[in-house]
């Protein structure tokens, strides 16, 4: 396959389409999804984009969302900051930063 350059608009359109996929997946496992604040949904769509809908749907965060405890759900994202390095689970600084940003956006909706 030949290398191809994408315009900013094409990249934006692809991202919007991909995020819609994660939004639909999250809605399928959190029945009250459409009633959640937009900030909360956005943060968890970003989270699912990174970990996958299956991991999100089986997570403690999703369980908290289903029970209506948004703040606990937002905080539960923070534990998803590890990766495997040389066969061992370790905290990754970049992933820790990402989770803090996602949590902070998420909590704006819980206020």
Automatic annotation (TrEMBL):
Entry EC no(s): 3.2.1.17
InterPro entries xrefs: Bacteriophage_GH24, Glyco_hydro_24, Lysozyme-like_dom_sf, Lysozyme_dom_sf
A single GO molecular function term of this UniProt record: lysozyme activity
Source organism, top-level taxon: Bacteria
Gene3D superfamilies: 1.10.530.40
Pfam families, sorted: Phage_lysozyme
Catalytic reaction(s) noted: Hydrolysis of (1->4)-beta-linkages between N-acetylmuramic acid and N-acetyl-D-glucosamine residues in a peptidoglycan and between N-acetyl-D-glucosamine residues in chitodextrins
Keywords: Antimicrobial, Bacteriolytic enzyme, Glycosidase, Hydrolase, Plasmid
Official protein name in the record: Lysozyme
């Amino acid at each position: 396959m030949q290398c191809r350059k994408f315009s900013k608009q094409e990249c934006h359109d692809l991202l919007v389409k991909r995020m819609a996929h994660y939004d639909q997946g999250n809605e399928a496992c959190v029945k009250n999804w459409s009633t959640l604040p937009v900030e909360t949904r956005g943060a968890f769509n970003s989270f699912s984009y990174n970990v996958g809908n299956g991991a999100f749907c089986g997570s403690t965060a999703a369980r908290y969302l289903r029970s209506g405890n948004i703040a606990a759900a937002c905080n539960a994202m923070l534990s998803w900051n590890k990766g495997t390095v040389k066969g061992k689970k370790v905290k990754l600084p970049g992933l820790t930063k990402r989770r803090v940003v996602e949590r902070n956006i998420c909590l704006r909706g819980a206020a």
